[in-house]
Structures are given as structure tokens and as C-alpha cells.
């Protein structure tokens, strides 16, 4: 049997994505409390995210959303990592408020935000170990939060498109227009 790598690329990236998600799940969490949500997205949901990113670009006049929308269309899969809001009760002042009780609901718990960052770092390190190309994109996360992917009510969601091509499509990107 002869298997052409191009014919199994999608499956290969999806298998790698499962390992990448496991790495994000097992990343350390503040106080050991797991408020992280992780999912893999493929087509047609990647297209839905790209469409939402284009809408956001028009609304806020940020052209990099257009570039990133085109960019994720080159991904075989995409991982979303976000957090459910839950104050950790540390009164750490990291969010800028003296206590968790005085922090407005509109201000994310800093520990939750840090947890997302640690999970994303772990995910990207695993992707690198697997030789899967990535780029962390907050623009994808914004679109995902608006669409409720993976679920409604998440904060601090970031997207990580995945690719297994001869060149990483997520770097050396041309801006749509001069960035603001």
C-alpha cells in the first residue's frame, strides 16, 4: 500500500489536534480549578468563524480581522481555548481591584486569563513537538465568543489555527491594508 501524505493531511491534523487539546487540558490551573473550555473546529465552522471575523472588521474598522479571516481558511483545523468566568477568591489585586467582591462583572478574573495563557502555551508547545504549524489569534477568539463556540458565556477565548503544509500559512502574511 502507498499512502500519499496529501491524502491524509486532514486526518493527520485532526489527530494532532486531539493531542494538542489534551496538552491544553492538563496545563496547570490557578488553585487547581478548571474553568477552561477547549474544542477543535473544522469546516464548515471555520468558514462561519471567518465570516464573523469579516463582520467584526467592518464594525470596528480593524483590517487585520480580514487578513486573519482569509488566513484561517488555510487551516485544516482550529483549536479554541477559552474560560468560563469564575473569580478564584484569591483577592490577589491582579485585576486591579482590591478584592474579588469589588471587581465588576465586566472585568475578567486575571487568574482565569492567566489560565488561558498557560493552556495556549502548552497547546502550542505540543503542536511544535508534533511539527504542526500554528499561530495564536485573538481575532478568532473574538469571533468564537460572539458565535458561542464552543459554548456561550466564555471569556478570554483565543484561537489557534493548525496547518500541515509545506510552508506555515500563518506567517509572512500581507496586511489587507495599512494596519491601524
Task: Give the secondary structure arrangement, pairings included.
Layout: H1 9-25, E1 36-41, H2 45-60, H3 64-72, E2 77-84, H4 110-129, E3 133-134, H5 138-147, E4 154-163
Antiparallel strand pairs: 1-2, 2-4, 3-4
Helix pairs in contact: 1-4, 2-3, 2-5
Q: What would a concise description of this structure say?
A:
40% of the residues lie in helices and 14% in strands. With 180 residues, it is an alpha+beta fold. The chain has one domain: 3-Layer(aba) Sandwich (NADH Oxidase).
Can you walk me through this structure?
This protein has 180 residues and is of the alpha+beta class. The protein has a single domain (23-163), classed as NADH Oxidase, CATH 3.40.109.10. The chain has 5 helices and 4 strands. The chain has a 4-stranded antiparallel β-sheet with strand order 1-2-4-3, with helices on both faces. The longest helix is centred in the middle third of the chain and has 20 residues, at 110-129. The mean pLDDT is 92.
Return the string of H and E elements. HEHHEHEHE
- Tally of separate helices: 5
Structural class: alpha+beta
CATH homologous superfamily classification: NADH Oxidase
Instruction: Estimate nothing, just give the exact number of structural domains.
Output: 1
DSSP E strands, number = 4
Indicate the proportion of strand residues.
5-15%
Principal-axes shape call:
globular
CATH A-level architecture: 3-Layer(aba) Sandwich
- C-alpha-based Rg, rounded: 17 Å
Segments where pLDDT lies below 50 for 5+ residues?
A: none
Order of strands, main sheet, comes to: 1-2-4-3
